[in-house]
Amino acid sequence: MYAVCLRYARHQLEAQDLMQEGFIRVFEKLSAFRMEGSLEGWVRRIMVHTAINHYRKKAFRMERFGLEHLPEEPVSAMALGSLGEKELLALIAELPDGYRHVFNLYAIEGFDHAEIASMLGCGESTSRSQLSKARSFLQARIERKDVLHHAGKTSH
Fold first, then answer.
1. Which of 3-17, 73-87, 101-115 has the lowest mean pLDDT?
2. What tens digit of pLDDT does each residue of 115-146 get?
3. pTM
4. What are the residue ranges of CATH 1.10.10.10 in the chain?
5. Could you give the residue ranges of the DSSP H alpha helices within 30-103?
6. What residues does CATH 1.10.1740.10 cover in the chain?
7. Angle between helical axes of 39-57 and 113-120 (0-180°, round to 10)
């Protein structure tokens, strides 16, 4: 569950706080678990909601992202294929909070835009826009890493 919290936190201490808060909620709601589905999935959902509620309190709607200049293009499958899991997670961690939350909820947790909009207190179009901008940001970072990686190989 720590890995789930890390995806939503800005740093390790914040992830630890989120995990602690999430487990407090798990224990408070344990009697509500109906043994339908996996306990791990149920706990994961509580952790995600805990993280999202934490950031909603920080006025998600008021945050300014400053990445509107990025083009909205699909992410190249070749670019993603050249990254390892740790590298990809590190890039995701660099996303501004709003982008990172929508990307995690959509691409990793599997929520749709209506669910994300409800969780974050924004419109579905905002969720779609945040996802598009997160993908553009990631693509630009991936392509930059790929260029730097190839430049390093040719200079030897």
1. 73-87
2. 999 888 888 999 999 999 999 998 888 887 66
3. 0.64
4. 66-156
5. 39-57, 77-81, 85-93, 97-103
6. 1-58
7. 50
CATH T-level assignment (fold) for domain 1-58: Rna Polymerase Sigma Factor; Chain: A (1.10.1740)
CATH 3.30.70.120 fits 66-156, yes or no: no
Tokens 């553009």, located at residue: 136
Which helix (H) or strand (E) segment holds residue 106: the answer is none
Query: How many residues are listed for the chain in this entry?
Result: 156
Contacts 24+ apart (CB under 8 A), 6-10: 6/89, 6/93, 7/89, 7/92, 7/93, 7/100, 7/104, 7/108, 8/48, 8/51, 8/52, 8/54, 8/55, 8/100, 8/101, 8/104, 9/51, 10/97
* End-to-end Cα distance, the chain: 42
* 115 Cβ contact partners less than 8 Å away, ≥ 6 residues apart: 105
Spatial CA neighbour of 119 closest among 129, 106, 132: 106
> Three-class SS of residue 4?
helix
Which amino acid belongs to residue 50? T
Sign of CA pseudo-dihedral 132, 45, 1, 48? positive
